[in-house]
Design a protein that fits this description.
It is built from one helix and eight strands; from the N terminus they run H-E-E-E-E-E-E-E-E. The chain has one helix spanning 14-65; strands at residues 68-76, 79-87, 105-107, 118-125, 133-136, 150-155, 161-166, 172-175.
Length: 190
């Protein structure tokens, strides 16, 4: 009877190893664009959610402090920042979010938080839509001037976009601007 003896030369051949690496490289090449789309959609949704959070915090602080709160948007390079601060009157300048001078709320804390999210055009609030800020009234938690409704539009390099809208009630909603790829659960802008 013959005994089985393991071959001392067992293992992978160079050809087997090269075929395995080639298959792995093809799979990675196919998955990379999909992963990049996923990452950019997540960054865009996160930026829109953070803008909504700053506005929500501003509304809460306005009521809590019984003070007018101004929410400012500012273009910074291709990015942006948004911040909130109490003001004595609607005509008083708000905080400078790019300098980190917003005591109530601000986004982003640093430029790295934006990843590849860019500001499209200029934030447009008021009538005519040339202001980059609006004021919240502490008595109603609405915009102090109902004509200050407006929006800010954000996008990422792979063509996804989102518009953050603020209505007279100070409520935030989102929609997909025309010509941009949409995010799941976000309807097209009217």
């Amino acid at each position: 009877m013959r005994r089985y003896r393991p071959d001392s030369n067992s293992g992978f051949t160079m050809v087997e190893l090269m075929v395995t690496l080639a298959v792995l490289a093809i799979l990675v090449a196919l998955a990379l664009p999909s992963f990049r789309d996923f990452a950019e959609r997540a960054w865009l949704r996160g930026a829109a959610d953070n803008v909504a959070s700053v506005i929500g915090t501003a509304k809460e602080e306005s009521i809590k402090r019984d003070s007018l709160v101004k929410v400012n948007f500012k273009a910074v390079g291709t990015g942006f920042c948004v911040g909130a601060a109490t003001v004595a009157t609607p005509s008083v300048a708000g905080c400078d979010c790019s300098a980190g001078a917003c005591p109530l709320a601000a986004y982003p804390a640093n430029g790295a938080e934006l990843h590849a999210v860019r500001l499209v055009g200029t934030p447009a609030f008021g009538s005519p839509t040339s202001d980059t800020d609006f004021v919240l009234d502490p008595k109603t938690a609405m915009l102090a001037d109902v004509n200050d409704t407006g929006s800010v539009e954000l996008d990422v390099p792979r063509g996804f976009g989102i518009r953050v809208l603020v209505n007279a009630m100070g409520r935030v909603s989102t929609c997909t601007p025309s010509g941009k790829k949409g995010l799941s659960g976000v309807d097209a802008c009217p």
